[in-house]
Specification:
single chain, 427 residues, alpha/beta, Aspartate Aminotransferase, domain 1, Aspartate Aminotransferase, domain 2, seven-stranded mixed β-sheet, four-stranded mixed β-sheet, 14 strands, binds pyridoxal-5'-phosphate, cytoplasm, pyridoxal phosphate binding, pyridoxal phosphate
Length: 427
């Protein structure tokens, strides 16, 4: 495959955009090489500016669960756009998507829409702090909740890939209110809560971590967090930006049968347009302005195009009773196929998977937290990434990222991918 035009476009972009990209992981820093400039996408495939066709396992980092340019979503956006693209006034469609989301997700009464997952998580902790009248939060090393200051204390994903886990520009005053815990280690969380009695407003967690590769919660971990929060009067925030409407209609809360106090969303809920949201029961959500004291706002929040895309996406997911079973089957098929060829080729690896979130680490040791996720950040991953790319298969350009399986993938695509994995290691 040739990437001549992508290289030219990247050189031009670098002159006017820092690093040539608008989000660091896109720059391929951790795997090397030049980022691919995409021209269009349909279903499970990307078409780049050089005319290459790629099977896509990132899917815009999660939103495109039904495939790219999914017709009902595209049509809904086009029709809405004809009526005006932004009003800064209430619209009926905002209530419609809110009603649907509240009906699909357990344990929430009200939801507020924002423009990104970052905004959702940032607003959720402000709400938790306002509601509890406490200042500290606990986050887990390797979990990513967007790029707002309180979370860039030891962030995973983009920040780790980019090699600056503690970003300059975050003040020490902000950092002191974020306490870092180890994922899947309840004793560690308990000791932090004990050392900060009455001071911790919230624990925020990715119920399935997806920003240190895919790291499932150990049995009892989420239940344990729930119990610790109840004991300490601390709110439990599930960051379901990745898992929401992906692991089940009701997200991780439904899948694991554990209720959070506040839930945040992004990605799938916007159908590929910029949307985030946070939700909770009435007693917490009523703390928000304009009815409560905690301020939160947005010029483009509830934007009609974004709401049209999100509503259509949720409606499609809601009416398809087989969707999550199909995603599970497809991703399990891919997992089995890759395991077989990696075993046949005597490659040391670990595969973690929950539903349609999966990642491959090239080390035989178990990956359960941020430190162990680091085992997979090695040269074999780079070889794997570039080998797949040469075969027309696009996975995340970092071992700290999860693959997101789309329903648009066919079993032929999956077989093709498994064969491509075999080729890389057989050669
Ligand atoms: N939370 C999680 C779990 C995420 O994976 C991300 C982004 O990848 C975010 C929050 C931030 O969302 P956004 O990139 O839309 O700001």
């Amino acid at each position: 495959m040739l990437y001549q035009r992508s290289s030219q476009l990247f050189a031009e972009a670098e002159k006017v955009i820092p690093g040539g990209v608008n989000s660091p992981v896109r720059a391929f820093k951790s795997v090397g090489g030049t980022p691919i400039f995409v021209k269009e996408a349909k279903g499970a495939y990307l078409y780049d500016e050089d005319g290459n066709k790629l099977i896509d396992y990132i899917n815009s980092w999660g939103p495109m669960i039904l495939g790219h340019a999914y017709e009902p979503v595209v049509n809904a956006v086009i029709e809405k756009a004809k009526l005006g693209t932004s009003f800064g006034m209430p619209t009926e469609i905002e209530t419609k998507i809110a009603e649907l989301a509240v009906s699909m997700v357990p344990n929430i009464d009200k939801i507020r829409f924002v423009n990104s997952g970052t905004e959702a998580c940032m607003s959720a902790i402000r709400l938790a702090r306002g509601y509890t009248d406490r200042e500290k939060i606990i986050k887990f090393k390797g979990c990513y909740h967007g790029h707002s200051d309180s979370f860039l204390i030891s962030a995973g994903s983009g920040a780790v890939t980019f090699g600056s886990p503690n970003s300059p520009g975050v003040t020490s005053g902000t950092a002191k209110d974020t306490l870092l815990a180890t994922y899947n280690d309840l004793a560690n969380v308990e000791s932090i809560l004990d050392a900060n009695k009455g001071e911790v407003a919230a624990i925020i967690v990715e119920p399935v971590a997806g920003n240190m590769g895919c790291v499932p919660p150990a049995k009892g971990f989420l239940e344990g967090l729930r119990a610790l929060c109840d004991k300490h009067g601390t709110l439990l925030i599930f960051d379901e930006v990745m898992t929401g409407f992906r692991l089940a209609k009701g997200g991780a809360q439904e899948l694991f049968g554990v209720n959070a106090d506040i839930v945040t969303f992004g990605k799938v809920i916007g159908g590929g347009l910029p949307v985030g949201a946070f939700a909770a029961r009435n007693e917490i959500m009523n703390y928000l302005a304009p009815i409560g004291p905690v301020y939160q706002a947005g010029t483009l929040s509830g934007n009609p195009l974004a709401m049209a895309a999100g509503l259509t996406m949720l409606q499609e997911i809601n009416k398809d009773s087989e969707l999550f079973a199909r995603l599970e089957e497809k991703t399990a098929y891919l997992e089995r196929g890759m395991r077989k060829v990696l075993n046949d080729n005597k490659v040391a690896y670990t595969i973690n998977r929950v539903g349609s979130m999966i990642s491959v680490f090239f080390d035989e040791r178990e990956v359960v937290d941020f430190d162990t996720a680091g085992y997979g950040n090695n040269d074999t991953f780079k070889k794997f990434f570039h080998g797949l790319l040469a075969e027309g298969v696009y996975i995340a350009p970092s071992s700290y990222e999860t693959w997101f399986i789309t329903d648009a993938l066919t079993y032929e695509d999956l077989d093709y991918t498994i064969n491509a994995v075999n080729k890389i290691f057989a050669s």
